[in-house]
Specification:
50% of the residues lie in helices and 17% in strands. By secondary structure, it is of the alpha+beta class. It folds into three domains: 18-47 and 110-215 and 226-478, no CATH class; 493-605, no CATH class; 621-728, Immunoglobulin-like (Sandwich). A hairpin with a 2-residue loop joins strand 9 (575-585) and strand 10 (588-597).
């Protein structure tokens, strides 16, 4: 009987399975190859502080087994830090960086596999391949060359969605074990994926609500029952909100005071996602959540809709709340970066409609209207710039990249883009309606739908290439900021403990780059708090002799460093200069100096109140010199570079004794005062006889100038003079 049953049925051989896997594998290989080239072209990280923080955590785990930032223990926050840690054991920073980028590419592109298997529960192979390729080609795949945990989180979220829907369809114990385990582990992959377990619970609720038993039960409800159900739902929302507000300040802030802002900002994120996906997958994915006319009711479709709706809800709420909270604490941003995880769900829905060529007219009308509102109105009136076309690349929303590159190279304007996106929405709706209006010509309808889907896929991949081109261009600009050799500190110190000491740094990007490329830099500090994290960056305490200590008690043991990078001109540490390195900041070249430090580490001199371009500011400038021999201080002050006739201004130069106040040097009694003046065309030099020991000199300029008042170029600083100090033991004859 078994033999007769199997007669005429061709068994599936390993070769058949291998050939069946070729199309999906080829998509993965081709996309990975493209992204590997993009990663190779990205010469240096630049998305700070994100990339530097993951670098610090990975290096710390590699060196000590524990996550830390600049030597201070810190939560790893993500398994990404542990996965990348072994690569930081490679001695060459460039090779370690390249290895991590390439691993990130292979991992992030693997999103094609769970997306394909998810889609195969509903559609045939060709449509499933379309969904897989779309998920692997959205503009946010440009993150694959970044050192960020999205590279792992994006495919992991897609895997969780596949396992959840498979468990709901198959109702198998082992699929449920996989779904629950993957969902429970998701927050460790990235903190945002803490919403995945909530999506699992919500999907179960939606699955129960759409079941035959629940539908039959609801048919017995009276109007009072429906009112009671609505009251219970809102009551549950209020309870959850109250609990969240009690345990989270962020939750309380945005839910009580910024409700409207949440709606606006999730709309912005959704609009950027829709642009990056080519509009049609966004519209079709949303429309697929509603049952199409004459559609056969199946468990697979019901579970797909339960899981997709749950995923869209939880990630939409998270994105809305995070963006609203960031707007109160940091900046108003378009946070598409937090919404990209729903892209595989939308693409599976697109594959469903493309395959079955049937869609709910009501759902399509609503989805099309929403897309029209987002793209033609909401994104045109987004803060800063319409469609963010005024920047080279918007790091939190790569969906804009194709428009930004269109602006740079094709002279696209926001007005033109607005009309273009209007056409995209109308074309998407028309393409999805084609099977209905071309019933007598099904082949033509199929061609129209397939062509529209492929056009959207091409637009999406072009957007990814545009985003990668943007990040590569920015990386090259950052590389010229640092200037090769990037590892010049490590090359000289041979990884011995090194201190970075800065002052008046308006732009910290050069320091972040230096810290990334040079692992010997163990502590980062500044005299005025202008150098920030990630990690500790506090100012040192300083004795009257200029000795640095990093705790409250100057007599307690304190870390000592073999070398230091001085941020000239205001930092001079006691020791032997080793080498200098030029870099770009503030629109001009500046210099770092590497010094082999004395022990104990101490300052020779420091100055405050001088910008990186040499100008003094609103609070004037003070120079301190520690444990000095008697000599002469040359003070050069100038307004010759000012270029405008602003008239003479009094200048007062005061020699002070130094006292200690709050564990820092401070101005003491006046010893000597010099009064002079400076005009807009003059450069002057003052020689001041200074005593042995520790002293300070304060230079005050009476009338400040504001560049913007003269040239209207936006520099609103209150400037005094271009100022420099130099100590001599004996006064030069010339």
């Amino acid at each position: 009987m078994a033999a007769s049953t199997g007669a005429g049925v061709r068994s599936t051989t390993p070769t058949d399975r291998l050939l069946a896997a070729v199309p999906l594998a080829s998509i993965y290989i081709w996309l990975s190859g493209l992204y590997l080239v993009e990663a190779w072209r990205r010469v240096t990280p630049w998305l700070f502080t994100d990339e530097l923080q993951f670098t610090q955590l990975g290096r710390s785990i590699a060196a000590t087994g524990h996550p830390a930032r600049r030597g201070e223990s810190y939560s790893a926050g993500s398994v990404y830090s542990y996965v990348t840690a072994p690569f930081w054991l490679i001695n060459d920073v460039a090779k370690a960086y390249a290895a991590i980028k390439y691993v990130d590419v292979f991992v992030m592109t693997s999103v094609v596999f769970p997306t394909y298997f998810f889609a195969r529960l509903l559609v045939g192979r060709k449509a499933a391949l379309l969904a897989a390729a779309g998920a692997g080609a959205i503009p946010s795949l440009a993150y694959s060359s970044y050192l960020v945990d999205e590279t792992f989180a994006y495919p992991w979220a897609a895997l969780c969605f596949f396992l959840i829907v498979k468990a709901l369809v198959a109702r198998s114990r082992w699929w449920w074990v996989g779904a629950i385990a993957a969902s429970a582990f998701a927050p460790a992959v990235r903190g945002e994926l803490a919403v995945i377990p909530a999506a699992l619970v919500l999907a179960l609720l939606f699955a129960w609500w759409s079941s035959d038993g629940a539908r039959a039960w609801r048919r017995t409800w009276s109007i009072g029952d429906w009112v009671g159900a609505v009251v219970l739902v809102f009551g549950a929302i209020f309870v959850i909100t109250s609990i969240g507000s009690h345990h989270s300040n962020a939750w309380q802030t945005v839910t009580r005071a910024y409700k409207h802002r949440q709606i606006n900002m999730v709309d912005w994120a959704a609009g950027s996602l829709a642009i990056g996906m080519g509009v049609l997958p966004f519209v079709a994915g949303l429309a697929a959540l509603v049952r199409a006319p004459a559609e056969q009711r199946t468990r697979e479709l019901r579970m797909f809709r339960s899981v997709s709706l749950a995923g869209i809800v939880v990630f939409g709420i998270y994105t809305a709340m995070k963006a609203a909270y960031l707007s109160t604490q940091f900046a108003t941003r378009v946070e598409e970066r937090n919404l990209i995880y729903i892209a595989p769900l939308l693409l599976v829905g697109t594959a469903l409609i493309v395959s079955r060529r049937s869609v709910s007219l009501v759902a399509l009308a609503v989805a099309g209207a929403y897309a029209l509102y987002l793209l033609v109105y909401a994104m045109y009136h987004v803060t800063q710039y319409p469609y963010q076309m005024g920047v080279q690349l918007y790091s939190d929303a790569l969906g804009f990249a194709i428009l930004q590159q269109g602006n740079r190279f094709l002279s696209w304007t926001p007005h033109l883009v607005r009309w273009l996106l209007l056409v995209f929405v109308l074309a998407a709706v028309a393409a999805l309606l084609a099977p209905r209006f071309l019933r007598r010509r099904p082949q033509l309808a199929g061609v129209v739908v397939a062509a529209a889907a492929m056009a959207a896929l091409g637009w999406s991949l072009t957007g990814e290439i545009a985003a990668a081109a943007g990040t590569s261009s920015i990386g090259r600009q950052f590389a010229t900021t640092l200037n090769p050799p990037y590892t010049w500190v490590d090359d000289a110190t041979h990884l011995k403990p090194t201190l970075y000491m800065g002052e008046a740094e308006v732009d910290q990007n050069p320091e972040w780059l230096l810290e990334f490329w040079n692992r010997s830099i163990e502590r980062v500090s500044s005299l005025d708090g202008s150098v920030l994290g990630p990690g500790p960056s506090g100012s040192p305490n300083v004795t009257l002799n200029g000795v640095l200590y990093w705790q409250d008690d100057p007599n307690a043991p304190t870390p000592e460093y073999a070398y230091a990078v001085e941020d000239l001109p205001c930092i001079e540490l006691a020791g032997t200069p080793v080498k200098s390195h030029r870099y770009r900041a503030g629109g001009r070249y500046q210099t770092w100096r590497l010094v082999h430090l004395t022990v104990p580490n101490r300052f020779q001199s420091v100055c405050f109140g001088i910008y990186a371009d040499g100008w003094t500011g609103a609070d004037d400038s003070t120079y301190y010199r520690f444990r000095s021999s008697p000599g002469w201080l040359r003070i050069t002050y100038s307004r010759a570079a000012w270029g405008y006739k602003s008239g003479p201004t009094p200048v007062r130069i005061v020699l002070h004794r130094v006292v200690t106040r709050d564990q820092e040097p401070a101005l003491g009694a006046k010893v000597k005062t010099m009064r002079t003046s400076i005009d807009s065309t003059q450069t002057k030099v003052a020689w001041l006889r200074v005593p042995a020991g520790t002293f300070a000199v304060h230079v005050a300029v009476a009338k400040k100038v504001i560049p913007n008042n003269w040239n209207h170029e936006g520099d609103r600083r209150h400037l005094g003079v271009l100022l420099s100090f130099r100590f001599f033991r004996t006064r030069p004859h010339r």
